[in-house]
């Protein structure tokens, strides 16, 4: 058993040290919550009657307190492919609960919006703040105090972080995340990317593009590229909050149902105990493990925002300095599209999370001794699940089944995790170097400044960007417009790069888990709104972005300039009713949350 890497040990100790006050306050609160949890035998009969009225098949058991009651918080809808399978989950989970003398109820539901549907549309400006709404919805669901454990049904981008934040405020209860798995693989990812770039160049029409996209996103289940949704599932494994190995088992299979059943049975076993509550499981080491998994697999850049936000909800202080220092020693052991050719189904078939966790543990690159929802430490998650007849079993993973996708930690694709902090007189931002060829890690060129992403496409089509250029898209931060993803920029910038130009993107917005081959400084903070450095750039200013040295700067003298005027808040598609979230949001490095900021967390 290898000793823990000294840099990881150092970062962990630093996080523990700077979190002492907030973590202690959080744990004290959770102890008080556990102590004052109501004895339902003493709760008003009227209250209980309201809670039991809808549970026709379980009323008798609930009336006599026969066993624990599990609260299901679901993010089901049938517009979002990843969440469509959840429609039937509650009825099955109630059956699984009865098998072990427990009951289950849908405690509440949360929104579940799809960034894939809203990409480039006005609705994307609600996306980041939907995480706060989901956390609040989870809080409302659990406020009834009728539950002994929590099953969290969620997969996609803001949904898992939102469920996590909400569940952590009820951290005196045990909770397990229950995924539903990815859709089967569609057309090859390179083909999808090729058609997108052809469409950006005007060489194919909408019919060809739509046919290609529907060949990729074609059935219930999570999208198969390694974006934020699948990075969420990876993190839940690294934190020990799933039944081991359940992240990437497809919907509708016997193995999927066996894992769902095990989740309910395990929650029933944990209910009423204090040994493996959510508050105790999600500690500093678990947060560090989530970051390590993100780096080792080249996961979504969105988690540079979500991990600090989730950590704050547990009283843990984690920032981009911590993430960047971890990245310096965590090797990249996986290449999954958009960082590689194969998707998450191929990743799972090659060894998946069991292989990744086994490699990290064997090299001392992750915390083994975390408290998981399962019966042991993280070691259990280094195996893969299977069926022996009708019985759920776990087996050793063995060697990588595809070394183009998964490599040993001793012979990685890159020696570092490829999530780099860049900073300078333009602020602090994130650079996902694992997706970018090394010869493009440094870009220095005159910039072209845009106030929104919609203005980039006309300039591209007019040939105005056919040169070495740093494209700056500003006023895209949390307080400006909710920090939308700017993924629509990828095809035109990719075309410019393929034409031989030196191209980069600098923005205070997000670029998503589908960030690809174009070098980019994203999440730049301070944001442009209110006079941040990006607001003082002008067309033609020379900007330098370098992942190797961690530089994000301009040669222009910004101190002598006036900031560009802040844009007026947009309305429509419900954006006006989210003004509270924009006005109260904190910076990207703290998680871009209005709720956490106003709660003083």
TrEMBL record:
Its EC number is 4.2.1.12. It holds the Pfam family ILV_EDD_C. The gene is edd. It catalyses: 6-phospho-D-gluconate = 2-dehydro-3-deoxy-6-phospho-D-gluconate + H2O. Residues 68-378 form the Dihydroxy-acid/6-phosphogluconate dehydratase N-terminal domain. Transmembrane segments: none annotated. Belongs to the IlvD/Edd family. This is Phosphogluconate dehydratase. HAMAP family: Edd. The lineage of its organism: Bacteria, Pseudomonadati, Pseudomonadota, Alphaproteobacteria, Sphingomonadales. Residues 405-591 form the Dihydroxy-acid/6-phosphogluconate dehydratase C-terminal domain. Its cofactor is [4Fe-4S] cluster.
